[in-house]
Amino acid sequence: MSLSPQPDQPSGPYDESPQELYLDPEVLAQELAEELLGDPLDAFDTSDPTASDVAAECDLGLQFLRGQAGGEAGGSSHDQRMQGLRIFCEHRDPRALPLLLPLLAVSCPIVRMSAVYALGRNPSPLAVEPLLALLAADDNGYVRKAVAWSLGNYPDAPVLNPLIRSLQVDIAAVRLWAASSLAEAGCSGPAKADPAAAQLLLSLRIDSEAAVRSNSAWSLGRLYGDLVEPRQQVVVESLLTAMLHDGESGVRDEARLALEQLEQPEVLERLQTLVDEGLLS
C-alpha cells in the first residue's frame, strides 16, 4: 500500500549512491528537500509472482542475509546483504526479522536505510523501539526518511507523537513522509486523529515545502472520517483555503482532490459554486 498521494514522483530506497550519503549535512538536507515523493517500494516489480516463486526468492534472501549464498564463508558480504535486503523490501517473511533487526545498528547508512525499508514491508513489534530511536537520533537524513515512511505501517504502535515531532522539526524529506504516515497513525479514532490533524493543519498552512503541504492535505482527507464534527469543519475550511490560495498548483490540486474525496454533499456543493463563479475551472 502506498502512503503517498504523488504517483508521478517515483523514488526508491536504492536510488542514492554511497557518495551522496556522506555529503555535508546542509547539502544533504537541501538534496533531500528536493527529492520526489513516490512510495519507496513502488520501484520494485509489481507483477504477480506465484507463491512458489515468492517462497524461493525469500529462501534466497535469507541465504544472502546469512552469507550462505554462493558458497561464501565468514558471514554476509556487503553485496549479498544488500541483495537480501532488496528481497525483503519486496516480500514479507517472518523468518527475516531476526536477520533484519541487527542491521538497524550497523555503521553503514545504506544498510541501515535498507533495513528500515525492509521492516516497513515486514513490520514487527520488536522493531518499534529501534525504529523510533533512529527517527529521533540517526544523523543520516536518508535513514530518518526511511523510518518516517516505515512507521506508517505501525499504526498500533506509539508512533503518533514521534511522527508529529518529525513533521515539526526535521528536514523536508522526512517531514513529507511523516505527514503521510500520520494518516495511518491517526486513523483509529478521534483520540489519535485529532492531534495528528492539528499538526497537519499547521503544516498545510506554514510549511515552506510544497511537497509537505501537499502530503498534509492528502492526510487530512484520509483522517476526516475519524475526526469529530468541529475539527471536520476546520479541515474543510483549511483545505478550501489551500485550494484557492496556496502558491503551488500541486498543493491546490491535492487540496481539491481531498475535498472531492470526502464525498460530503455540502462540500461538493461549495466546490460547484466556486466553479460556477469562475473561481475554479
Task: Describe this protein with a few key phrases.
single chain, 14 helices, 281 residues, elongated, mainly alpha, disordered N terminus
Question: Can you offer a commentary on this structure?
Answer:
The structure is a single chain. This protein has 281 residues and is mainly α. Helix content is 63%, strand content 0%. The protein has helices at 25-33, 51-66, 78-90, 97-100, 109-121, 125-137, 141-150, 160-169, 172-185, 190-206, 210-223, 229-245, 249-262, 265-276. Helix 3 (78-90) runs parallel beside helix 5. It is elongated, with a radius of gyration of 20 Å. The model is unreliable at 1-37 and 71-75 (pLDDT under 50).
What is the overall shape? Answer: elongated
Most strands sheet: none
* Strand percentage: under 5%
Helix-strand pattern: HHHHHHHHHHHHHH
Any chance you could write out the topology, listing elements then pairs?
Elements: H1 25-33, H2 51-66, H3 78-90, H4 97-100, H5 109-121, H6 125-137, H7 141-150, H8 160-169, H9 172-185, H10 190-206, H11 210-223, H12 229-245, H13 249-262, H14 265-276
Helix pairs in contact: 2-3, 3-5, 5-7, 6-7, 7-9, 8-9, 8-10, 9-10, 9-11, 10-11, 10-12, 11-13, 12-13
Give a brief description:
By secondary structure, the protein is mainly alpha-helical.
